[in-house]
Amino acid sequence: MLFDLDNTLVDRDAAFRLWAGEFAAGRGLPADAVDRLVALDGDGFTPREEVFARARESFSLADPVEDLIEDYHHRYPRHITLPERSRSGLRALRSAGWKVGIVTNGVRVQQRKLEAARLLDEVDGVCISDLVGSWKPDPGIFEEAARRCGTGLAGWMVGDSGPADIRGGQAVGLRTIWMTRGRTWDLGDPWPDSCVDTVAEAVEVILSGRT
Is the same domain home to 100 and 61? Predict the structure, then answer.
């Protein structure tokens, strides 16, 4: 049983917006700064070097880009939280006999997010792409995540990214649950086995055995 981290187990977008508000207030940035920072963020897919180079230019910041990134990596993870319903869901899965792992694309800052959300005690294994040299949808990262959970590669992959989580999970034989985030599936066949809005709904699907 594998879960994605950002915008699956934790609300990355909300955490980024909270960080952006703190960043803007601390530097006396204009009222629209938070929305502009969110746009620059590109749902987390824009490289941090580009985000902060553009932010530095846009807001006439004196800080070097490297310092802005370091400060971001220090402060932003503090805003990551795990909803209690999601925590309860993970515990229910493990109580039912599932091995639960997290497989996430990203750099070392992902570890800080896991610690801030108090997730490490709720799962059997964690696989961060930058630390293992394999990124979703590559099969290797799923295989390593299963190994770290002490189990074979079987069960489910739950995530919000169609190309990375769903296609990656399907390619290694996992059943898949897509976190819609208000979107409509647009990648065609094969579809995810289930589409849900919350981790709690995903857990219900898994425990009930339905798709």
Answer: no
